[in-house]
Amino acid sequence: MIDPLTARIDRPGPIAPRSALAKLIAALLIALPLVLTIDVVSASVALLLEIPLLLLAGLRAREFWTRTAVLWIAAPLGAVTIALYGATSGVVHFEWLVMRVSDGSLALAAATAVRVLAIGLPAVVLFITVDPTDLADDLAQRAKLPARFVVGALAGMRMLGLLVEDWRALALARRARGVADQGRVRRAFGMAFALFVLAIRRGSSLATAMEARGFGGRQPRSWARESVWGIRDTIFVALAALIPAVAITVAVLTGSWNFILGPVA
């Protein structure tokens, strides 16, 4: 449901109304430890512990599968590549030219596939529920990032949606001139260059307009909405930090944890 006053999508999940900065911190706390591990046990445990987080985010089933489709495609493709060209160890099951499938490459492929899902799914799901304006408010007021940088980045993000409309307008204009039916590759490069020039011009106009309205001032600025961080945000971040901690602990106890730079004794 879309709020008519703020144009935000109201989601029913308890995680959706949490602070945008809390979601950013939670995604980083989950991702960074898992990036440094390369075993299937820690990634699998983390993925299982992330299921409640994914269910409580408030996404509909169709939206979830649509937004995360690239991960479900990338994970098996990455696993196949690692299985064929990964480090060889143990029994070799298949070998042809530079391709070699062994016990070591299969284990590494499984770990890679699960890690992609364990790192990517919470990041995608959490950021779907983040409003760019709320994130900018939190970064400027809570993280104390420069207001000029934050507001400029927010304005740039708001302009990204216009690129699709610009591309469609360029295609219609070329078709009206009769130059859109031949040379698809050349036409695509020409439209990309025209879109690049148009983006630069719009960015310059936006920068001038923002400077004229005082967005470039160095003095402390006020904010229309105060950034709020409650006890629930702290609990949410703490629970997110527990996911990789528990996953790595289980992997260490089972003797299967491998650090990204090499096995851990």
From TrEMBL:
Keywords: Cell membrane, Membrane, Transmembrane, Transmembrane helix. One of its GO terms (cellular component) is plasma membrane. The keyword Glycoprotein does not apply. The keyword Cytoplasm does not apply. InterPro entries: ABC/ECF_trnsptr_transmembrane, ECF_transporter_component. This is Energy-coupling factor transport system permease protein. It is found in: Membrane. It is a multi-pass membrane protein. CDD domains: EcfT (cd16914). The chain crosses the membrane at residues 21-49, 69-94, 106-130, 235-260.
